[in-house]
Every structure is written in C-alpha cells, then in structure tokens.
Amino acid sequence: xxxxxxxxxxxxxxxxxxxxxxxxxxxxxxxxxxxxxxxxxxxxxxxxxxxxxxxxxxxxxxxxxxxxxxxxxxxxxxxxxxxxxxxxxxxxxxxxxxxxxxxxxxxxxxxxxxxxxxxxxxxxxxxxxxxxxxxxxxxxxxxxxxxxxxxxxxxxxxxxxxxxxxxxxxxxxxxxxxxxxxxxxxxxxxxxxxxxxxxxxxxxxxxxxxxxxxxxxxxxxxxxxxxxxxxxxxxxxxxxxxxxxxxxxxxxxxxxxxxxxxxxxxx
Amino acid sequence: xxxxxxxxxxxxxxxxxxxxxxxxxxxxxxxxxxxxxxxxxxxxxxxxxxxxxxxxxxxxxxxxxxxxxxxxxxxxxxxxxxxxxxxxxxxxxxxxxxxxxxxxxxxxxxxxxxxxxxxxxxxxxxxxxxxxxxxxxxxxxxxxxxxxxxxxxxxxxxxxxxxxxxxxxxxxxxxxxxxxxxxxxxxxxxxxxxxxxxxxxxxxxxxxxxxxxxxxxxxxxxxxxxxxxxxxxxxxxxxxxxxxxxxxxxxxxxxxxxxxxxxxxxxxxxxxxxxxxxxxxxxxxxxxxxxxxxxxxxxxxxxxxxxxxxxxxxxxxxxxxxxxxxxxxxxxxx
Lengths: 267, 334
Description:
The structure holds 2 protein chains of 2 kinds.
Chain A: E1 2-7, E2 9-11, E3 17-18, E4 25-26, E5 32-34, H1 36-51, E6 56-62, H2 68-77, E7 81-85, H3 95-113, E8 118-122, H4 133-141, E9 145-155, E10 158-165, E11 168-174, E12 178-182, H5 194-202, E13 207-208, E14 229-234, E15 243-245, H6 250-263
Parallel strand pairs in A: 1-6, 1-8, 6-7, 7-13, 8-12, 9-12
Antiparallel strand pairs in A: 2-5, 3-4, 9-10, 10-11
Chain B: E1 8-12, H1 22-38, E2 42-48, H2 52-60, E3 65-70, H3 79-93, E4 97-101, H4 104-116, E5 121-125, E6 127-130, E7 137-143, E8 148-153, E9 160-164, E10 180-184, E11 195-202, E12 216-220, H5 227-240, E13 243-246, H6 248-252, E14 273-277, H7 283-288, E15 294-299, E16 312-315, H8 318-332
Parallel strand pairs in B: 1-2, 1-4, 2-3, 3-10, 4-9, 5-9, 12-13, 12-14, 14-15, 15-16
Antiparallel strand pairs in B: 6-7, 7-8
Helix pairs in contact in B: 3-4, 5-8
C-alpha cells in the first residue's frame, strides 16, 4: 500500500503564555512540535507497514523551511520519504486554500512516488483546531473520507477503520483511494531509533514551490484565495472577581462553597 | 455562489430514531436573532429517517420554515449521503448563512459541504453575531488551545457556514410551532455511499454521559486518585443533578471511560456550572470548558492554573470538601 501522511509543524500550545502587560500571546521561545494528531496518523500508517513491509509511507507538509524539522522527525519515526510544500504565495491560506494546495501537491508527488492508496491526516492541528483540512482534501480529490479514526487495518478491498463517534465506536469499511483523519488512540506512537534518526538528519527533503504547480489556480491560494478572513483576535477575558475559599479547615471551606452554590441557585 | 435569499439555515442533526439532537434546536436560538438582523427567515433543515419528531421540534423551537429530506439512506449518518443532500438543497435555495452543530458528524459534514460549494467555513464557534459594519456573520472561536479568541468573517462567498459548539446556546422553551414544512425528495444510490458501517459498539453508559447537554458537570482529574475517587464524584453528582466529566489524565489512567472526557481530545462543553475536582487546568482542558458559565475549582495546589479561570476556587482536599458539601446539600433538603 502507498500512503501519504499530511503533517503540520505547530507551536506547542501547552507552552504558550499570555504577556500580562500587553495581553498578547508570547510566541518567542515557544517550541515547535509535530502536531500530535499527525503523529497518530503516522503511527497508523506505520502499523499497516508493520504487517505489510512493502508499504510505502510518504509525508508532506506545507509550511516554511523550518517545517523540515517536523518532516525529519517523521522520517525518523516511520516515513520513507518527505516533501515540503513552501511558497510565499501560499502564506495566509485558510483551510479551503490550504487543502487545495495540499491536494495539488499530493497529485504532483504521485508523479514521482506512484498513486497513493490512502491519504492520512491528523483530525486537527492543535494551533487552529479546525479539523477541516482533511475532509476538504478529500473533497478536492473526490475521495471518500473517514474522520475521527482510532486505528486502521488494511483488508482485501480497502481499509477497515475503527472510528470514534459521539456515543461509542464504529467499524467502517472504505474502498481505496480514501482520506482518513486520526484522533488520539489508546496507544502511544513509537519513538524513533537512533539509526533512523541519523538517517533522517542526512535525508534530502525536496521542496515544492510555486513553480512546481504551473496549472494551479492562483485565485484559490493564499490570503486572496481564502474565503474566510480573521477580523480580530483577542485574549479571552480573564475571570475577574473570582473568589478564593481557603478556610482554616476543609469543612469550613466546604460550607462556604455550599453557600456560593446555593446563592447561584444550584442547590 | 450567490445567495438567493437572506435566509439563515440551521441544520438539525437527527438521531437514528428520527428525533432531533439538542444542538440543532439550541442553534435556533442565536439563529433567530441573526436571521432577524439579516432580514431573512430562520429555516431548519432536517435530514434523516422517519423525522416527524425532529420536524415538529424544529417548528416548536422557533423555525419559520422547515425543509425536510427523508429516506432510509439517512438513518445512519454517512458523509456521502448527507453532503449530497445538503449541497443540492443549498444550490436550490441559496441561503446566505448556515449553522451546523460542532458534533463529530457535524465537523465531518461541514468541511465537505463548504469545500464543494467553494465557500468559507469557521469551526467550533463559541459566539455568533452580525458584524454591524458589513452585515456579515461574525464567527468567534477559540484558537491556540483556547489561549486566543479569533473573530472570522466570510465577506464575499455564500453561504457563510460555521460549526457551533454544543451547549453554548440554550434552546428556547417550546411554543406552538407554525413553521411551513417543505419536503424535498432527494435520494442517494447505495453505490454512491462509499463507506459501510460494519459494526457499532455503543458505550454502555453513554446514555447517561450527555456532557454537551448537561446543565451541571462535576469533573475529576488526576487528583481524584483512582476509580474509587470517581465513585465519590458520582455520588455528589447525583445530589447535584450533574453529569460526571473527567480530564484526559483521569481517562488515560483508565479510571473512567473516554465518553466522560472534557477538553481538546474529548468533549467541548457549555454547562451553567462546571465543578473541576483535582484538575490542574491544562490548557487543553480549559479549551473544552470555555463555554461554561460558572466554573468552580477544588484543588489542593493553590497555584493550579484552573484557579485562573474559576469563579470560585476552593483550596483544599477534595476528599474532605466533597463529603461535607454532600452533607450540606442533604441537610438543605430535609
């Protein structure tokens, strides 16, 4: 099976702090990481490869030159080949434009790597949290999709996906080619080996810029090709006037909490 | 595409028995105000199988008009059947905006539909308004794990579409429904539905774990210490009429089922009261509770970040505080 995994380098949102003076996000010094959900997608592909070693895993990311670090991490973990999609005119893309560029890139890479049977993505990136790029890639390519995947198994006529739904789990059968997005499974993704890490550091990562896509509709990319625009951003207002209860004993604290709740009409 | 009307649509997601899911009915509340500002009708779109109950509910909760699409192929949600039906309705009627509940299915469907229509989509909104300057919908949503809020516009493409977090809005009390009901006959061939549901495993207790619809949630984290701690939470929850939630740490430790999880990898919730017990308040957890009206935190660590978002923070041992609280509640009822 030939699988392409779409990944994104993201700021580690657990490390983001708000500047108390300016009330703005402090981005300096915040480490960038491989989007964890993309790591689950890569692991799902790696598990298919564990059972069928002839499987090829290609990773692709759209982003600046620095995003090669995330791609190298993927190579160290399980990927066979990595591509970076990078161009000035791609910047400012919303999800519709991003998914268009990625779907074009996937088709471009197929000229070298052969037709992909499946496109795996994380269910969402932890910076934007939209969960839209995966299904939109599926739509651009005209493929069926399965979202919120936990595990994927290659079967005779396609893939069998264990999928999280609002009230439980479903097993879904889907033919190839298809798009699957992954959420957090019950197991942890594998770590890279030293040997793979060294090989990944030396790996050449081809960069696909604007010139790689002569037929791309430039009206559908970047800021000008994006239907949605950010009008404003703001730091969510801190709760002010929040009260703190710390009495001499927990019993007294509990009684104070009770009166807080009863004033609110909850008890 | 161009909008043909000033109407605002709300997709009413249905259960397999044809009843309406709460989130769709909730969205009729902001939908009413927005439709009035846009100068159009509030239209509920109901897709499903044997949906008379959902059509009636949509009417009773404020829709001016209901568009109903019924068929056996819609009983169980599939991306292909639902996207085909919804896109052909939008192309026929041309609404100016559309709200879809940000459930797993809603977030599967909405990007597929918006991409086919080549229009903009804003995910998981927690506030909705009409931009006074332009008349566009102003979609407000959390980003960067809830550290930042962004207001998004979709100025030049129609319909403007957004998914909206369940529980943020409350449905209006039912009134006598007077909506005009239009039935559309749209069918999707089995061969065009490219995914098959092979097996369904329902969470045994998921009936009871309606976090998104809950008015009160009592949640436990690492500080709860184990499954026994959750037994105490269940006991207090029953007294409060609360649903039990959990942080990722507690779910990962295996103390409670994933269906209880609140936060970025679990459910986003919007209760009137959220009580966090032994939860430190990782940003991923806080992202999931930004829709809560009142937050109470009980934690031993006075520096826990959960206290930064709490309306009432109790610094103390939850195993001491909760039993006394339970006793006070019992006393108040006798």
